[in-house]
Design a protein that fits this description.
Strand content: under 5%
Distance between the termini: 33 Å
Order of helices and strands: HHHHHHHHHH
Structural class: mainly alpha
Largest sheet: none
Number of strands: 0
């Protein structure tokens, strides 16, 4: 689990709910079905209109990605690439075939297989770049989905508030009941702004961050495999790949 995502959501919700409770607010007055239906249902409906059914079906997968912690160990993959480079210099590219079973990362496995098949350097790079480009397009669908939902939610909240005010001002002659109805009408705005800024937009930004991290990870693998095919010195390969890591986190060169 991604502790930063979970902690951030708990902290933000806790701060808001805690402050509301300390001021004497009643949480039951916030959980009203009509404004929640307008905001949540309207936001999801408007967002679905802008995308495809395939993307909608992948929303649970996007959410799991936002709350999970990907296993991108840059130092480990650099060590593995350098090890393969050293073996390729000793035994030749075909000598890497016995290492295929130990490679679980799909992109890395495909890259090494292309390497073993004798794919020419420029063709190898083109194939891997195309693979990265299509993966990037799939990732952006999830990012844009939650980004658009974050844009629609406040507007649907205002719409719900307007509808509530119309109902409140036109259906009662009692001043106290009217005041309660007006207060309830603004719950829709609360849900719209709250969902946008505490869930939809943060999830979109989290997916974008993880996308950038994975793109760097895949580019590192691509550069490493291309360098092996080009016959580069393993030490030079390590130095080049370490540039993908922040200076303070780079492993010691050996």
């Amino acid at each position: 689990m991604d502790l930063a995502t979970i902690f951030g959501l708990i902290l933000s919700l806790g701060a808001i709910v805690g402050a509301f409770t300390l001021e004497g607010g009643d949480l039951n007055s916030v959980f009203l079905f009509p404004p929640m239906l307008i905001v949540i249902g309207g936001t999801l409906g408007a967002t679905i209109v802008t995308t495809s059914i395939e993307t909608v079906l992948q929303v649970p997968k996007f959410l799991r990605l936002a709350f999970s912690r990907p296993d991108h160990r840059f130092s480990t993959i650099i060590d593995e690439v350098v090890r393969l480079a050293e073996k390729a210099r000793r035994e030749g590219i075909l000598g890497l075939e016995s290492d295929m079973k130990g490679i679980s990362q799909p992109f890395f496995r495909k890259a090494v297989q292309l390497l073993i098949d004798g794919t020419e350097v420029t063709v190898l790079r083109e194939i891997l770049e195309t693979e990265i480009a299509y993966l990037e397009e799939r990732h952006k669908r999830g990012i844009v989905f939650f980004q658009k939902a974050g844009g629609f939610a406040p507007t649907l909240g205002i719409l719900g508030t307007v509808l509530g005010l119309v109902h409140a001002l036109g259906s009662t002659d009692d001043a106290s009941e009217m005041a309660s109805a007006i207060a309830a009408a603004f719950i829709a705005t609360l849900w719209g702004v709250g969902l946008a800024n505490l869930f939809f937009l943060p999830v979109s930004d989290k997916l974008r961050m993880k996308h950038d991290e994975e793109m760097a990870y895949l580019e590192l693998i691509m550069e490493g495999v291309v360098a092996i095919q080009s016959g580069d010195n393993p030490r030079n390969i390590r130095t080049r790949l370490c540039s993908f890591i922040a200076p303070g986190n780079r492993p010691e060169e050996v």
